[in-house]
Design goal:
The structure is a single chain. The chain is of the alpha+beta class and about 190 residues long. The chain has seven helices and ten strands. The chain has helices at about 20-25, 25-35, 50-65, 70-85, 115-120, 130-140, 170-190, and strands at about 1-5, 10-15, 40, 45, 90, 105, 145, 150, 155, 160-165. α3 packs antiparallel against α4 and α6 (about 130-140) crosses α7. About 30% of the residues are buried.
Length: about 190
């Protein structure tokens, strides 16, 4: 699999052998265990990084690997990202030290990732069942995370294949309220077939 990384408007392509994802699964699990205790993301300490934040942390390590020409580490970090974010096609790491501003574009179609296929296959027709819609909405709307002094969440836009950041909220409670509205809207759209 190929993962594209954009650094200073220059595209880097990392070739990750298909067998690496299975062979390095224990290593990927160790990376997750390392992040379970929290992680420094830019200026903020994140107690429990969610899936997207973990990917942003690993993308920062991937950026370092590319800058230092460490091909082995770069391939492993790219493998982690491809394993944890099925369908990932492109990464644009933040170069200013604000890890949480790293962007991901989902665009690669996968046969083994049922996380995107039910919604995309039925998007034009009948809606999903309530359980399927609930699960897909949970994948499409991240948990609230801290950014600087504010809080936000991200929503996956299936039309563009990118994660869109919600507006910055001053409190975690306000961001949580906005997330619930976004989750409900996404859930209802999936039930209706959108």
């Amino acid at each position: 699999m190929i993962l594209k990384v954009i650094i200073d408007d220059q595209a880097h392509e990392i070739n990750v052998p298909d067998g690496l994802l299975a062979e390095a699964r224990d290593y990927f699990d160790q990376i997750d265990r390392d992040m379970d205790g929290g992680w420094q993301m830019g200026r903020d300490w994140v107690e429990a990084p969610d899936r997207i934040q973990r990917a942003q942390i690993v993308a920062d390590r991937l950026l370092t690997a590319i800058e230092t020409d460490n091909l082995k580490l770069g391939t492993l970090m790219a493998g982690y990202l491809l394993d944890r974010l099925p369908g990932l096609g492109l990464i644009e790491p933040d170069l200013q030290g604000e890890i949480q501003n790293t962007r991901f574009e989902m665009g690669r179609q996968t046969q083994t990732a049922p996380t995107t296929s039910p919604a995309t296959s039925r998007a034009a027709g009948a809606g999903l069942s309530k359980l399927e819609a609930m699960e897909q909405a949970g994948r499409d709307v991240t948990q609230v995370f801290k950014v600087g002094r504010g809080y936000r969440f991200s929503i996956f836009d299936h039309d563009t294949g990118t994660w869109m950041d919600a507006p910055l909220a001053p409190t975690e409670q306000e961001a949580g309220r906005l997330r619930q509205q976004a989750f409900k809207a996404r859930y209802e759209a999936l039930l209706a077939g959108g």
